[in-house]
Amino acid sequence: MKKIILMFFVIMQISCNQVLHNKLGIENAKKELENALNDTTKLAILDKNELLIKEENTAIKVAEPILFEIYGKSKIEDEKPYEAYLINNYWVINGTINRFSFGGAFSIIIDARNSKVVNVIHYK
Length: 124
Prior knowledge:
Blueprint: H1 2-20, H2 25-38, H3 56-71, H4 73-77, E1 83-87, E2 90-94, E3 106-111, E4 117-122
Antiparallel strand pairs: 1-2, 2-3, 3-4
């Protein structure tokens, strides 16, 4: 009996969570984008020289999904360990290759102030 009651509460919790969350929809998303691009009176969250991506680990977490999508997850993961350097507010992240293999590795450059990808390439 306790299991049935517990199961009932779990099902109710799941059902309530789905009902209590309202989606705003694509039209709202379009308005938000338009407002953000056109309204220059709003203050930016960060000062123009403040870094959004401060840590190497975060930079890699930003870079990996992009690289996985372009080149494939297994190919990119085979290029671990990565090298990541913060240079003049830009993360330069490179894959490494086994010294006994042929071919090149990826390189991605990300602006640490806004997460913008400046360059991405895979050398042959």
